[in-house]
Amino acid sequence: MTTPIFRNLARIPALAALALLAPTLHATGGKIVIKAGRIITQSGPDIQNGVIVIENGRITSVGADTKAPWDAEVLDHPELVAFPGFVEAHTSRGMDRSNENITVTPFLDVRDSIDPISFYFEDSLRAGITTINVQHGNSCVIGAQGMIVKPFGITIEQLQVRPQSGIKIVASPRPGASRALQAQQLRGAFADLRRYLEKLVQDTKDGKDTARREALFQGRDMDKDENKTGRAMEGNANWKLKGFEIVPRGEVDDKQEPLLRAVEGKLPVFLYCDSAASVLLGIDVARENGLLGTTTLVLDGDSWKAADQIAAAKLSVILSPELVYSERDPVTGKEVRTFVPGVFDKKGVHFALQSLNQSSQSLWFQAATCVAWGLDRKKALDAVTRVPAEELRLGKRVGSLEAGKDGNVLLLNGDPLSVKSSVQYVVLEGDLVYDRSKDVRVRQLIEGVEQNNTAPSGAVEPGDVCGDEHKEVGGDPTKKDPGEKKDETKPDHDHGGKKD
Amino acid sequence: MNLSLLAFLVCVPQSAPQVQTQGDAPRKNWIVSAERVYTGAGRSIEHGTVGVQGAKIGLVSNGSEDSGADVLACYAVTAGMIDASVRIDAGLSSVEQSREETPELRVTDTLSPFADAWDGQAASGVTCVLANPPDENVIGGLGAVLKTAGPLSIAERTVKADAVLRGAIGSQPSRRNHPASGRPTDFFSRRPTTRMGVEWEWRRSFYEAAASRKDASRAYIGSTQVLAALDGKLTLNIQAWTTQDIRTAVFLKEELEGEPQLGGKPRLVIDAAAEAWKEPQLLVRSKSDVVLPPFPADGRTDDGAFMAWNTAALLVSSGVRIALSAHGDSSPAGSLGMQAGYAMQGGLDFEQALAAVTTNPARMLGVEDRVGSIEVGKDADLVLWNGEPFQATSRVIGVIVDGALVLDPRAKE
Known about the structure:
The complex is a heterodimer. Chain A is an alpha/beta fold. In chain A, 29% of the residues lie in helices and 21% in strands. Chain A folds into two domains: 4-85 and 398-487, Urease, subunit C, domain 1 (Roll); 86-395, Metal-dependent hydrolases (TIM Barrel, Alpha-Beta Barrel), CATH 3.20.20.140. In chain A, the strands form three sheets. In chain A, strands 5-6-7-8-9-10-11-14 form an eight-stranded mixed sheet. In chain A, strands 3-2-1-4-15-16-17 form a seven-stranded mixed sheet, with no helix packed on it. A two-stranded antiparallel sheet of chain A has the order 12-13. In chain A, a hairpin with a 2-residue loop joins strand 2 and strand 3. In chain A, helix 1 (4-21) packs across helix 15 (469-475). Chain A is globular, with a radius of gyration of 26 Å. Chain A starts with a helix and ends in a 13-residue tail after the last helix. Mean pLDDT of chain B is 90; it is low at 12-24. Chain B has an eight-stranded mixed sheet. Chain B has a seven-stranded mixed sheet with strand order 5-4-3-6-15-16-17, covered by helices on one side. In chain B, strands 1-2 form a two-stranded antiparallel ribbon. The relative contact order of chain B is 0.17. In chain B, helix 10 (336-345) packs antiparallel against helix 11 (350-357). By secondary structure, chain B is of the alpha/beta class. At the A-B interface, strand 13, helix 11 and helix 14 of A face helix 2 and helix 10 of B.
């Protein structure tokens, strides 16, 4: 029974099985009803045996006695715990390369670098992270514009939650630069912008049309209202630009425009600081250029030592993945450990956490570590849901389970902070996009054994005989579940990699 | 308060002068009062007390005590954790390069009690470790079981000197060596340069040592130690990450046992056996113990080995005795306590996870009479937790080593 005909016949039951499974992992028009033994809403008290109704991708109701629409698919799991999807406040993962080799690149956009089929997004989904702010790396002066994405989809459009979510500014020396050079270049970038804009005003006054011709050359429609009209510079920068209203906005060069938008308070800033010293520089530059109101600090190293200054500037922060800072007392030689979130908690600064890695130490682990070090459990959970949502200006959309918010729901087989728990299902904007029981690669991570159906589609496996349904299902290119897609590109175990 | 606790308190005056001063940590009599006492000796006590008398455990009882100057309160107490592969050593500077096998060298001669790493170990709840020579030589030398805190003297911290004969199978012993081809051979060219060569050196060492029983002229420097390992008087501790290297180690053991001219009875612990999950029956058959490396987030470990998340659970259910290791990492995410948590994530139950970081390594190292469990008469090595041990939401808040308070749960951090 190894002729092609028989082999294809053997596929029939497999395909039938596939057809039955398919709806659970396909778009359901964003309509789904989730019944869980316990709902941790993050917006009020927990609900025992509650129901979450999602329609058109948005939560319409959460409660114990909510009625489900008759035509909705029901995910009925009284043994599981529902929790809002985690929110990754800042990462440079998921990109092809995260640092451009030029120091000032506000005109670039990470959307051109994000790789939707990167393992990072698959890992994030498995860890229950449903909202991710992807930003340019920290080896720059002014980086590209970032993007908020969800970890499901093949194209960048499918991933997109919000484009141009912010811009990376770095106040600590990038590799190869001294602190002084970095500071000078950072201030210099804004001075360049200012000089450029002043020249633009002067040129307009002088009747030069170079900028206009350049704009037309770049393909901008100068007849559009937003392009042909000028307006005074907005925002809170300490420097003012006289007469800028006479410059049609469309004449501002693409290379400078995003930084101007940041100065005008229209593009959020993610300001990276690796030390307390860079925090001071960063706050100084942000204040000078009117960025304070739109800046979120991304911290590392001993930045927490500037917690007072951060609190005084009313900034919110995204903390280093290393939650416990360790240093040695130079006199006694004793190791001194500082629990960084505790410092900011005491100062009343809002803080979000970052994943330590994209696998087993993701956001749940970071929140759990905070609890271990004495932080209130509610605050720890907020630091991976509500606070990052606010920092990303998505507070009305994600971070908790309540009516009106995006239908991003995790179902876990226990408390979200227990080592024994894992994410069983992920519902993303009302679509069931992850089912752990169908996650081929998680089985490989757990059991080590390479699964049968991980070969590229079309490949004939040695044991590929009639009746072996699992293999047939997996080899079928029509199956579109997320784990499947990745597994086709999955590299083998790197057994031979480092051998001599 | 029950009678035995009362008796203990009466016998041991609370204001007794310090029994002994150890480093800068005063050794006194402590009462550890916990909601959960996980003794590791077959029972767990709810609301229990552990009395520390000098350097030993003087009492384990029901009933808790929450007042008094020397009472240390916590959610849970376990025995001090034991890392059977701590990998604190003097680095490459302690690798003797004149020979590929240096079985007679002692790791204790290269260790410094002043090294910062010990503090981190003790603070993360690891009170006892097996320190081994680096694995750049095929047979590195003699490992020792040490406490991680105490007097500033390696000798005084030693629980068991010459505890194991340490060596490595795999790429590491040959990695830095270079062959005669490709580069001009010089005085420093070292052998072996392949896994084959490493295996040959192992077998040659044993065959030569065995021959020296009858012919003293066959003896070489270190053959006494190799002979002791062959005869089972010294545990053989071999690093082998991958399946092929684990096989080599097991087959070596079986050859030592089966070959008439060797007549060996070796005891084998395979360290860093990341791929032990592939053939657990091989480890059962050869009665080898296993020390697992830290759980990698993506499954990838050294030497190209892949370690599945259920490795610990699978080996235990197959009947293999395992110990977990953090390889010297004392950070919140990498510590030995968290490794036990990751093993639980992979399906191990709590009692087995506890055994894998306490009693199992104690037995593998032959120090179970002193450490590994909370029993009267054993060393007062205790770890105090602020929640359920090994959960990510808990951490070590107090540590006692040989009765000395190394990390004070009452201190504000």
